[in-house]
Amino acid sequence: xxxxxxxxxxxxxxxxxxxxxxxxxxxxxxxxxxxxxxxxxxxxxxxxxxxxxxxxxxxxxxxxxxxxxxxxxxxxxxxxxxxxxxxxxxxxxxxxxxxxxxxxxxxxxxxxxxxxxxxxxxxxxxxxxxxxxxxxxxxxxxxxxxxxxxxxxxxxxxxxxxxxxxxxxxxxxxxxxxxx
Length: 180
Hints:
The protein is α+β, with helices and mostly antiparallel strands. It has a single domain, classed as SCP2 sterol-binding domain (Nonspecific Lipid-transfer Protein, Chain A, 2-Layer Sandwich). It is 51% helix and 16% strand. It contains seven helices and five strands. It has a five-stranded mixed sheet.
């Protein structure tokens, strides 16, 4: 007698969340690279990182992921997927990732609520999370700062102009980075 094998087809809700999280990660990766070259605050944050450290952000079990690498005091977006990371910041499932990546809560709250975990050095994971908060200040509109940050950042005029530049070039960056 032949056994039937069943495959579970992902729901429309899951597929939509996976798409949104994938796009958010793509935007975060490109913005991380750009902000690390221009923001004194982010440069200060990453100056103490181990040289050449690779950090990946992703979603378990088989969700989207990106990898970032420290290079000469800046961050380089390596592309989608896990590129031999030293540290992985992993959201436990798509629902856990969807909430912070749609600016409904900050990543620090996601960690407190056990929605995310660190595989590798916890210290390096915390450093990466702090750097991610700086990048989010340039990526997210000011109207959502209260939900995402414990203490919303006060951007100077120069930082606001750079944020505008990030917004204006984000589509081009995402298109170029999508192939990585």
